[in-house]
Amino acid sequence: MPWEYEPREFAVDWDEDGQPVKFFRPDFYLPDEDQFIEITTMNQKLVTKKNRKVRRLRELYPDISCKIFYQRDYMSLLVKYGLEEAIDDSDLAAPIRIPGPPQLVDLGLDDDQQAAG
After folding, report:
1. CA-closest candidate to residue 3, choices 37, 39, 34, 28
2. What share of the chain is helix, strand, coil (3-state, %, to 5)?
3. How far apart are CA 21 and CA 80, in angstroms?
4. Which residue, of 20, 27, 77, 82, has the greatest Cβ tally within 10 A?
């Protein structure tokens, strides 16, 4: 699957002269899916900050799709593909959901697998 690392920067705040002063650069872009991906860390302060930036991105650029992967999501993928052994994740911070309608992401499952959860 083709991907790009931090290929685009989005202005998310401007000064009184209309000059951009804050930017958000999602971690990855999947061109075949037209999907940006942001990966967070376990540091709650950074998770909250990234949630705020993604929410602002969605407000300003509604045609841009950006999915956040939290630490728990990242670890699940590592375990799923045999890159890491399963750990007791009860100590990991629970992800904070960004308010708004849920966004569906196709992870390559067929319809039967998606229906099964």
Report:
1. 28
2. 30, 20, 50
3. 40
4. 27
| C-alpha to C-alpha distance for 52 and 18, rounded to whole angstroms | 21
Q: How far is CA 3 from the centre of its chain?
A: 14
pTM of the model: 0.66
21-71, pLDDT tens digit by residue? 999 999 999 999 999 999 886 676 788 888 999 999 999 999 999 999 888
What is the SS3 assignment for 44? Answer: helix
Q: What is the DSSP string of 4-48?
A: EES---EEEEE-TTS-EEEEE--SEEETTTTEEEEE--S-HHHHH
Contact 29, 8 (CB under 8 A): yes
Domain count, the chain: 1
